[in-house]
Amino acid sequence: MSDIKKNEMHLNFLAVSDNEAFARTAVAAFVANLNPTIEELADIRTSVSEAVTNAIIHGYGNDGNGIVYMDCTIENMTVEIKVRDEGSGIEDVELAMQPFYTSMPNLERSGMGFAVMEAFMDAVQVKSEVGHGTTVTMKKNIAKENRV
């Protein structure tokens, strides 16, 4: 197992649903050297999935246009993942982060994306500007006792 002190990964991909699985897989491969537990890895993958899906569906209206930007940093045993879009933005971030709130009830969205991210990650921050996009920053501390 390598002793990673700091590492970075930057990805840009089209805002299409097929790329959500790519984003999850890329992040999982990126954090693999930290030797996360299966649960930690599942938490990260699920949170990335929610953030990328939000960017595609809510940021860009699922129209196949736009780019999702994902920046990942490992520093010591903490993974920071930023998922950013340049889409429509969120008018009321506090409201959007409430469980079961959805801006698209006609699409049968559950409104649990941010709640899932907050449950699975150690920190979640959302910054948004209407008409300019949204950045979701998530952090996960990987337990040192997992290291081999």
Keyphrases for this structure?
Heat Shock Protein 90, single chain, five-stranded antiparallel sheet, 148 residues, alpha+beta, globular, 4 helices
Description:
The protein is of the alpha+beta class and 148 residues long. It has a single domain (6-146), classed as Heat Shock Protein 90 (2-Layer Sandwich). It has helices spanning 18-31, 38-59, 93-96, 113-120, and strands at 6-14, 67-75, 78-85, 123-129, 133-141. It has a 5-stranded antiparallel β-sheet with strand order 1-2-3-5-4, covered by helices on one side. Helix 2 (38-59) runs antiparallel to helix 4. The relative contact order is 0.21. The model has no long low-confidence stretch (mean pLDDT 86).
Q: What's the number of structural domains?
A: 1
Average of the residue pLDDT scores: 86
Instruction: Tell me the distance between the termini.
Output: 7 Å
The total of helices stands at: 4
Rg (CA only): 15 Å
Q: How does the overall form come out from the CA principal axes? A: globular
- Fraction of residues in helix: 25-40%
